[in-house]
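Notebook, student rotation project (T.W.).
Task set for the rotation: take a protein with a known small-molecule partner, predict the structure of the complex, and write up what can be learned from the model alone. Partner molecule chosen: S-adenosylmethionine. Sequence and SMILES entered below by T.W., checked by me.
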Amino acid sequence: MLFKDCLPYLLHQFKSEHDLLSAIEELSQNFTTHRESITEYLNDARLASAYTAFYLTTNIPKLAAVFKWLPSEWLEELKKCILVDVGAGPGTFTMAWKEWVGSDFLGVHQIETSRIMRQQAQKLWEGIYPNEKLLQFSAPQEQTGSFLLFGHSANEMGHKEALRYIEKVRPDHILFIEPGTKSFFPEMLKIREELLKTGFHVLFPCPLETTCPMSNSASDWCHQFIHVRQNPEVERLSQMMKMDRKLLPLTVHAYSRTFEHKASERVVRVFPSTKFSFEWDVCLGERVEHYQVMKKSFDKQTQKELDEVLSGDSIETELEKSLEQAKRVKLIKRNNQTL
Ligand SMILES: C[S@@+](CC[C@H](N)C(=O)[O-])C[C@H]1O[C@@H](n2cnc3c(N)ncnc32)[C@H](O)[C@@H]1O
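Predicted structure of the complex:
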């Protein structure tokens, strides 16, 4: 999907590329430095349109990159579900989902409190998918077979409201794609705790369903990074705005009532590699360990690939040696690929 594909369906028609870029910059400042103005875009057609243009093009590859971490059998289960997009905004993740499932698309319900955003979502959907029905502002009547998605919305509504929607819709599966910020982490932990109490299994990122070992850390919080290959047009505009849209921090959590899956070890922090080793903090569920993986056991190409390991990757290892502050391990698999 390119900028030009969605421009005719924005609520506000930008006079020029410069006009659009300044609106995106204003929006971005409201999200970061001028947090007191964070909700302005929900009542302003110009800012809502800028949000739509920028995040539609970047959230489509983002969802696809997140799905690469998740078990393929679970993704097959999701395809049999109706999507309920909570805090759907203009529907950027709804569209990312539609693009990802393709002809398996079964329908979507969007739940969204902003009138401007609902108008924008309707216009965009009807423009891009004129033959597909969009059901807005309601939870599905059918209580089973739904997949709830929070795309950058649980952080705006807070954990209580997010849990209220979960209780109301009673989905089988839930995916959170939220900002990778320290301030959101305690909110995510409260949601995790409640979901585990009410019969959900955590599929990502936690290797175990025990208390999170980072829950009491003053400096660390569990979040992930993805590399996103943006299309050249988005790349060019991001560079003009000095916004990095290639390496994105985020908080991803996935839950299911009906499906269980355990990763044995999850990378939670990547340190700069030394001449001889890769250095990662790895979550084992009950504790976080520092792992050292020696470079010499891999050919140059694999070393290059391992330079791209990011927080969020799953690994499988064998212990080689316990060191004072770390474990030296042999890396067997990364993201289920044998090395
Ligand atoms: C950052 S936007 C994300 C929109 C969309 N999910 C996306 O990623 O493009 C957050 C959205 O959550 C919506 N929101 C906030 N609180 C809400 C609530 N209690 N119920 C429904 N939507 C809510 C806002 O109106 C806003 O559209």
